[in-house]
Predict the 3D structure of the following.
Amino acid sequence: MTFWRGVLLFAVVAVAFGVIGAVIGRVTARRGAHELHFAPSAMPATQRQAVAYLDVAVAWHSYLRAVRTLIYPEEGPPAHGSRDLAAVLESRAQLQAVGSLAVQDLHDQVLESAVTLIDLLRSVTGSPPPDRAELSTQRLSLRVALSAIEERISALERQVLYEAGHLPSLPEVEVEMTGRPAAARGRQSQSVALR
């Protein structure tokens, strides 16, 4: 009987410590989450614009990577990314708020090219199996449409990089191999001279 009391007492103590640890962890995580959360309005406009531009580039490249394997099946298995334009449309909503008119216009041009590609893909998959000559013609038209998207994405990226070049940059901090910020060059030479 004393053995079972010891086991029961041990289980109760373990559960109590677990509950206390969970409560402390939740309070600590909640406090840390508030420190890490940045409200969009708290960021300067240039930083919001840079974040929106990065989201646009990532969304388009993810879409391209997913669609490319449909058009070039010889390159390997299909990518695991989403083939829909949801992320692209979300990034377009961000551009509406903070992007320049030139970037918004280029984004819309890429979007029109993507819709054209989707229409071509639908026509290819909806038609009966083509013969060899018709298949090569279909692939060629799909590849031309994909290269048009890639060219327009490149133009969009060039515009984004041009505009980002005019954004104020943060001062670069040199990092030692240990991961700590390096001492400023002026201070380092003074400390060497003092030795």
Remarks:
- The longest helix spans residues 2-36.
